[in-house]
Design a protein that fits this description.
Blueprint lengths: L1 H59 L3 H11 L5 E7 L5 E4 L18 E8 L2 E10 L7 E8 L1 H50 L14 H24 L4 H11 L5 E5 L5 E4 L5 E4 L4 H13 L2 E5 L5 H4 L5 E4 L6 E6 L3 H20 L10 H21 L6 E5 L6 H8 L4 E5 L7 H4 L5 H8 L4 E4 L2 H14 L3 E3 L4 E4 L2 E7 L17 H11 L7 E8 L6 H14 L7 E8 L6 H21 L7 E4 L5 H10 L2 E4 L8 H9 L6 E5 L12 E3 L4 H13 L2 H17 L2 H19 L2 H11 L1
Parallel strand pairs: 6-9, 6-12, 9-11, 12-13, 13-14, 14-17, 18-19, 18-21, 19-20, 21-22, 22-23
Antiparallel strand pairs: 1-2, 1-5, 3-4, 4-5, 7-8, 10-11, 15-16, 16-17
Helix pairs in contact: 1-2, 1-3, 3-4, 5-6, 5-21, 8-9, 9-10, 14-17, 15-16, 15-19, 17-18
The protein binds GDP-alpha-D-glucose.
The site of GDP-alpha-D-glucose has 27 residues, from helix 6, strand 18, strand 19, helix 17 and helix 18.
């Protein structure tokens, strides 16, 4: 700091002082010389005045010796060098003793009776003053008086030296003063800033003392900006929280209204046996992921009211504030007729698109009547979204394959809306998707979104290839954008996740307590290894394949009989559909067969829980399990895998994971399997049973870090940040013109 003060303040001041001295000294020299000369001239006149009478008398008397004596006396003054008394014709009447030979009576002429000038002699400069006494005298004469000016030089030198020393000392003192003041000032600012940084006061102006100093408030502003940027960056990398998400909505989306549209509602009200409405959180990965986001951002969630008590629990605007225990956002329910539900949901969505997008080798069924129903329901949801929108540019987050038509339909109603459609299931390759009879309509509607999100880059690539195959448009593969009729749609991977830490953990005891509770509840002996499966009862999840893998394990290694039980939660789902009914029957059949084959005493190889469970129970199971088996035949992401990891704060337990689940891209420390290979799955179960505590801990702690960092807030945050960027870009004048032109 000292060096920088010297460089920044002292050196410039010293330089400026030298410049002033350099140009000022000659001026001061001249000024002093003028003053001394006029002093000498006055002195000469004074001397002459006092000499006039005696000299006149002596000249008139022609008393040369008297004159010489008188002059000798007068010139005894060391500054009065010499006096010459001259006749008007220029000859000397008398010269005082020290008169230089080079000065004669003709040395100074002119009309004026009294005049003076400077003469340079070899001994130094002298002032020569002439006084004429001619007209009134009987004997005219003139007096030349020579004053020694060498003292002027001496005094000038002294004055210059004094001035230089004075300037030097002043500069030194000034420099010291500057250093001192600067040091004290900087120390004070440093103290204030350190206090600000430590107390993070710059985030709140009101708390900051001394804001009158403009420089400090500027520094604080910069610090606050840097802090916020850094915080967001950090959040991006490792610590996405509900607060960070709220901040994104507030700061980057300027508190825009956020509307979520999904088929499944986050809270279903059903009547119990006594016709009391009972609330239920559905078994849905989409709900698991989005609910914490709505809690963080408020807003409106538009969804199909499918519960038996749903109508009885909404207000007259079909709205209800949820979550029931801590209402923080609005759920707007949409009613569908029986026919709509059949055609749109069971028909086109589940028998058509679900089977189409999952390579589980279940043939998709496409019926025109289902497609019309799908169109009708998408239009119905569009009306509701438009009615719920309280601004002309809301942020609309559309969920899943139920609403492929919504982006274009909403864009027509709310042109300035920022629309993101997230596809929760895999996107198949172009050939597979090509079998859908309404593929072009779907793609064209989807491309009206600003953002199309998928779980993995691979699904994005499949989508771009499909668009390339069936739609005439411009695709930028590098930036993953599709431009159609002037509208740019960005296609990006957003790997979905879960909240961290999961809120259900708070309500559960430690792992040992969960273990004994689960063992006891399901009649599993304490020393039996629990392998866990948790899913909606769906043919994509590989439930039958895992039973067969267990059978293979027990066949190959009879010593595992009595030592392992597979605890399978199968939450009934889409039970109206023949494929799902068949799956349920097949599941029961396989459980019965395998259990019959191996059961010994009280031990059963498979324990099937064929009912929807409360989330707390699910998390209790995760904590109780020795390994969790996720062998989906095809899965967009699979949140069960992430929930299992999140539930294991004891850093124990083994995850067996299908390579056809999106989660396997992130959780590479799991035991990865091909779910179609029953033997490999059986071996993975054996590996899990044999794995040592250290390896289990190492794998689990790495997976926990991944899920913690890539939590659901990050998923939403990244999408919302991208939405904010798109909004910013669209607000640029050139973008507005372009949009206007394309709208026109
Ligand atoms: C789709 C995609 C993607 C299960 N049984 C019960 C229950 N669950 C919960 C689990 C988990 C969720 O349901 C299932 O999530 P998944 O991700 O495994 O699967 P999908 O429902 O098929 O979800 C999937 C997801 O969307 C998100 O984008 O990962 O690939 O297919 O949270 O805990 N929950 C309750 N009772 C149960 O009995 N309460």
């Amino acid at each position: 700091m000292f060096r920088s003060v010297v460089l920044r303040f002292v050196l410039p001041v010293a330089f400026a002082s030298c410049v002033v001295a350099y140009f000022g000294l000659p001026y001061i020299d001249r000024l002093l010389a003028e003053w001394f000369r006029s002093d000498v001239e006055l002195r000469a006149q004074l001397v002459m005045h006092s000499m006039e009478e005696p000299i006149t008398a002596l000249v008139e008397k022609n008393n040369e010796s008297g004159l010489r004596n008188y002059l000798a006396k007068v010139t005894s003054d060391e500054r009065l060098l010499a006096i010459l008394v001259c006749s008007p014709n220029g000859s000397a009447i008398i010269k005082s003793e020290r008169a230089p030979a080079s000065v004669s009576c003709a040395a100074i002429g002119g009309e004026s009776p009294a005049t003076s000038r400077i003469v340079q002699l070899s001994s130094g400069s002298v002032q020569l003053s002439r006084f004429d006494f001619d007209s009134a005298q009987p004997r005219p004469f003139r007096v030349l008086m020579l004053h020694d000016l060498s003292f002027v030089d001496r005094r000038q030198r002294t004055a210059r030296d004094f001035l230089l020393v004075f300037v030097g000392i002043s500069v030194l003192l000034l420099a010291l003063l500057i250093v001192l003041v600067a040091w004290l000032q900087l120390r004070r600012w440093a103290e204030v800033l350190i206090g600000d940084i430590r107390g993070k006061r710059f985030l709140d102006d009101a708390k900051s003392p001394g804001m009158s100093l403009p420089i400090l408030s500027q520094v604080r502003k910069v610090l606050a900006e840097a802090e916020e940027k850094q915080r967001l960056e950090i959040d991006f990398h490792e610590n996405w929280t509900p607060q960070a998400l709220r901040q994104v909505v507030r700061d980057h989306l300027h508190s825009a209204q956020v509307i979520i549209v999904s088929n499944r509602e986050p809270y279903i009200h059903n009547f119990d046996a006594d016709r009391h409405p009972v609330v239920q959180v559905p078994a849905s990965g989409m709900v698991t992921a989005l609910e914490p986001i709505m809690r963080a951002c408020s807003g409106v969630w538009v969804a199909h009211g499918a519960g038996t008590a749903d109508r009885a629990t909404v207000d007259r605007y079909d709205q209800i504030r949820v979550p029931p225990d801590d209402p923080s956002y609005t759920l707007r329910r949409v009613w569908l007729t029986e026919a709509e539900e059949q055609g749109y949901y069971y028909g086109f969505c589940n028998e058509g698109l679900w089977a189409l997008c999952h390579l589980a080798y279940v043939r998709p069924a496409f019926r025109a009547s289902d497609w019309y129903s799908y169109e009708k329901v998408n239009a119905k949801f569009t009306e509701v979204v438009a009615a719920e929108s309280n601004t002309d540019s809301p942020v609309i987050l559309i969920q899943d394959f139920h609403f492929a038509l919504l982006p274009r339909l909403i864009r027509k109603k709310i042109p300035k809306a920022t629309i993101a459609l997230f596809w929760h299931i895999p996107w198949p390759n172009a050939e597979t998707f090509g079998v859908c009879p309404w593929k072009r309509e779907m793609l064209l509607h989807m491309l009206s979104a600003d953002i199309l999100g998928f779980h993995t880059r691979y699904h994005c690539q499949n989508f771009l290839d499909t668009v390339d195959r069936f739609v005439e448009c411009q695709i930028d593969h590098e930036h993953m954008t599709v431009t159609l009729q002037g509208h740019v749609c960005s296609v990006a991977p957003y790997p979905i996740s879960i909240e961290w830490p999961p809120r259900w953990l708070k309500g559960l005891p430690n792992v040992a307590a969960c273990r004994s509770a689960v063992h006891e509840r399901h009649g599993i002996a304490a020393d039996v290894v629990i392998g866990l499966g948790v899913e909606r009862w769906d043919f994509t999840k590989g439930i039958i394949e895992r039973f067969q893998a267990l059978e293979a394990l027990l066949d190959r290694n009879p010593r595992h009989r009595g030592r392992i039980s597979l605890l399978q939660v199968a939450a009934p789902s889409r039970s109206q559909l023949p494929a799902y009914q068949a799956l349920q029957q097949q599941t029961y059949g396989e459980v019965e067969r395998i259990n019959a084959k191996f059961t010994e005493d009280s031990w059963r190889p498979i324990v099937l829980i064929d009912e929807h469970q409360e989330p707390l129970r699910i998390f209790e199971l995760y904590r109780a399990a020795d390994f969790c088996l996720v062998n989906s035949l095809h899965d967009g992401m699979n949140l069960v895998a992430k929930e299992f990891v999140a539930a294991r704060d004891d850093e124990d337990g083994v995850l067996i994971l299908s390579t056809f689940a999106g989660a396997s891209r992130e959780l590479s420390e799991a035991v990865l399997i091909n779910p179609f290979d029953v033997t490999e799955t059986a071996e993975a179960m054996e590996t899990a049973m044999r794995m040592g505590r250290d390896e289990r801990r190492n794998r689990m702690s790495l997976m926990r870090r991944t899920v913690k960092e890539n939590n659901v807030y990050r998923w939403a945050g990244r999408m919302l940040m991208d939405a904010a960027r798109i909004r910013q870009r669209q607000s640029l004048p050139s973008a507005k013109r372009r949009r206007g032109a394309s709208d026109g």
